[in-house]
Amino acid sequence: MKEKVLISACLIGSNCKYSGGNNCLDENVLSRLKEKYDLIPVCPETAGGLSIPRDPSERLGDKVVSNKGRDVTEEFSSGADIAVTLAERFNCRTAVLKERSPSCGSHMIYDGTFTGTAIPGRGLAAEKLYNRGIKIMSENEVIETVETAEAAETPVERPALKDILAACDHTLLRVDCTADEIKTLCDQAIKYNCASVCIPPCHVAGAKRYVGNKLPICTVIGFPNGYMTSSAKAYEAADAIRNGADEIDMVINLSMVKDACWDDVAKDIKTVRDATKGHILKVIIETCLLTQDEKLKLCEIVSASGADFIKTSTGFSKGGATFEDVKLMRENCPADVKVKAAGGISSLEDAEKFMLLGAERLGTSRIVKIAIAEEEKAAAQQE
Questions:
Q1: Is 36 known to be catalytic?
Q2: What pLDDT shows up at residue 144?
Q3: Is 295 a catalytic site residue?
Q4: SS (H, E, C) the chain
Q5: Domain chopping of the chain, boundaries
Q6: With respect to CATH, is domain 161-382 assigned 3.20.20.70?
Q7: Which of 238, 271, 336, 375 is the most exposed place for a label (fewest CB within 10 A)?
Q8: Does the global pTM surpass 0.70?
């Protein structure tokens, strides 16, 4: 018997959206879903008594209002309850919902200004389903899942050593590292075509003078604890860029996370993003200190921040990257937000698996050391 999945009715072609149209998924994606699952369609808005067509509505705090100022919270809440009842009646463990909808938005919703501005959040139905333990997926995540499944049906080619090296931010962040060690790090990164070197801010200017444009320079901001003020982080980031940094890895404020001050977390990241426009920004969320729900919430916030990467770890806390966390981050961030695994990547096997799980950058120095050791071994065998 197929697993049953709740799905926004507009995604399977039902003309139930506010304008009277639909948001039907691509034919290939929809057919793959129907092959694997029994789809249980629901439109919480019409189930709650709203008409087709109807005025567009957006969520504003705990309320839902139309663009004409009408409070339609009761109808949206009633429809959300019907969606939960359907999911529980059919034992649906997953719901595929229309992103940005005030009822079905899974990670993003419009902000209530009717200006097309999206913010992190869930629609009323998505929120109630999530609170009942049902996995929420947007249509974009389903498309990625189907594409990933199709790719998985063909043999997976393991990344070659040169490809792993090209994904490496060759890293030296030891507190007592010297200028000579940084030069050696840069020489190695250039020789092995690494993505960048990741070094302390105090060494950025010297490294940039040393390598010129031969190699991107990455540095860390708010490192490793992340609890300095947002303005201090922004100043530090701007200073690093003036000194020649091409990429910035910032640490989020974990105190704000633990207090569930999510708007403040988002503002902290945005402040650094504003100071680093035109440069790559990676956001370190320190997964070893987070609960599962916190990891998921941070995937939402980082995805909406304009950052280029979400990164697992500083490597200075009680744990580093795990396969489970990289998989979770890849599955819960859109394709344009890349994943960086860092901390504890000790072997080629680790690096391969992280990349196969979706990491596009690796924060480590060990892969270059492995490449050097292999070169030395090959040279010894030729003698």
A1: no
A2: 73
A3: no
A4: CCEEEEEEHHHHCCCCCCCCCCCCCCHHHHHHHHHHEEEEEECHHHHCCCCCCCCCEEEECCEEEECCCCECHHHHHHHHHHHHHHHHHCCCCEEEECCECCCCCCCEEECCCCCCCEEECCCHHHHHHHHCCCEEEEHHHHHHHHHHHHHHCCCCCCCCHHHHHHCEEEECCCCCCCHHHHHHHHHHHHHCCCCEEEECHHHHHHHHHHHCCCCCEEEEECCCCCCCCHHHHHHHHHHHHHCCCCEEEEECCHHHHHCCCHHHHHHHHHHHHHHCCCCEEEEECCHHHCCHHHHHHHHHHHHHHCCCEEECCCCCCCCCCCHHHHHHHHHHCCCCCEEEEECCCCCHHHHHHHHHCCEEEEEECHHHHHHHHHHHHHHHHHC
A5: 3-152, 161-382
A6: yes
A7: 336
A8: no
